[in-house]
Write a structure and sequence with these properties.
Helices cover 41% and strands 24% of the residues. By secondary structure, the protein is of the alpha+beta class. It has two domains: 1-141, Sandwich (Jelly Rolls), CATH 2.60.120.10; 181-275, Homeodomain-like (Arc Repressor Mutant, subunit A, Orthogonal Bundle). A hairpin with a 2-residue loop joins strand 4 and strand 5 (74-76). Helix 3 (127-141) packs antiparallel against helix 4 (148-170) and helix 4 packs across helix 5 (182-193). It is globular and about 55 Å long.
Length: 275
């Protein structure tokens, strides 16, 4: 793909800031309101990200599914995340690479407290990056139309996941603490990770850089506890799936797994307790 053809092939405003050398093959592409997700192969060349060349600014989070890239004087390995933010950047493909990318309007992340001038060039692999990568990959490849409500919810998940991925890796350096209360930060993290049955209050505290006692104090300000909030998130997810009825084709075991419960028994117990 030539430089002039790049934004046309991607077909969206986010990629107007991206010029390319070498070969790009788009494997999947899907838009959800203000967010676009793409899955693509890149090889034999480089990307030059120049955000000032686009009238609407976007932030790109590109998860390396395979291959290796070079940027800012360091190698980026499979599992890590390239970030295309306010500062321009150049990425060279050291070998054929496959990426799953989310392109998000900068203002959406700024509203949540992200400092666009402090975004790093690369994020390391983590449980959050893996969860975000799988969601973006699945969404980009999925077919069919979404209802207006489904589009809104998907957009919020993509934005929340991107925000949580950054704060989990960078903390204070990329987030304005004055704009993001501790409770909001913790709740966002729980929302993104709640579908993982192995996720717990102890793991949440570790990933947020807090002690369990500190996390408990944060939730106590809202009259809750970390454990109760996590349980409520999972119960809400399970009820939404169960309310959709048999058309989803999901068994009780599937619903439990997708909602973050370790078993159908634990899901049933939580559903009854939450009534």
């Amino acid at each position: 793909m030539s430089d002039s053809a790049a934004s046309t092939a991607f077909g969206s405003a986010p990629l107007h800031a991206l010029s390319t050398r070498g070969h790009i093959t788009i494997r999947a592409r899907r838009r959800c309101r203000s967010v676009q997700c793409t899955v693509m192969d890149a090889r034999d060349g480089s990307w030059n990200w120049s955000p000032e060349s686009s009238s609407t600014r976007y932030v790109g989070l590109c998860f390396l599914l395979r291959g290796q890239a070079l940027t800012s004087g360091r190698a980026v390995e499979s599992g890590e995340v390239l970030i295309f933010g306010r500062h321009g950047s150049v990425v060279e493909w050291a070998e054929p690479t496959t990426l799953a990318c989310a392109w998000i309007a900068e203002e959406s992340l700024v509203e949540m407290g992200t400092d666009p001038f402090q975004l790093p060039a690369v994020l390391p692999a983590s449980p959050l990056t893996i969860a975000a990568q799988e969601f973006i990959l699945g969404f980009a490849r999925a077919g069919g139309q979404q209802s207006g409500l489904a589009q809104y919810l998907t957009e919020r998940i993509l934005i929340d996941m991107s925000f949580a991925t950054v704060i989990a890796a960078e903390g204070r350096s990329s987030i304005s603490e004055r704009r993001v209360p501790e409770l909001t930060r913790a709740q966002t993290h729980f929302s993104v990770r709640s579908a993982d049955p192995s996720f717990s209050v102890e793991i949440a505290a570790q990933e947020l850089g807090l002690s369990v006692r500190q996390l408990q104090r944060i939730f106590s300000k809202a009259g809750s506890t970390p454990l109760r909030y996590l349980r409520d998130l999972r119960v809400e997810s399970a009820r939404e799936l169960l309310d959709q009825g048999p058309e989803t084709g999901l068994s009780s075991r599937d619903v439990a797994r997708l909602s973050g419960f370790s078993s159908v028994r634990s899901m049933t117990r939580a559903l009854h307790a939450g009534r």
